[in-house]
Model the fold of this input.
Amino acid sequence: MISSVAPDRPNLFADKFSLERGSMRAEPVARNAGATELGGTLYELGPGADGIPVHIHHGMEELAIVVAGKVTLRTLDGDTELVPGDIVAFPRGRRGAHAMVNLSDAPARYLMLSTKVMPEVVEYPEDGTVRVLTRPPFAPPEPGEDPADRLMLLFDRSDAK
Done:
């Protein structure tokens, strides 16, 4: 019998994070569980930490589920405090613009689920920049992948013609 379950199942409450940037830690739990078409990353933000700046996905749709602590959701319309159990969807385009920050004095965790649409265009409206990706940024290379096929380009939106 073939099992679709990964032998080392990730757990949202484990203290295992393979990616760290400042006070933000992340673990690609969907990939670790064996998912190939669905993205899912567990993020932990330390007290006072910013995650990724406000951004707009033009290819992917995302869904955030707050697991622990308090997270402040930043959108183009303002800020909203989220608590454990809160679920927020971020559709493609400007109405899905978002960022998560931790303004509290305790760590906060949230699970970000997404469609895995590549290539992807991500806009950072506060910075006036656009990123073009042909592969997920933290995904390991595929067997036989040509490194030239892995583009991660960042440019000023005003430079576009």
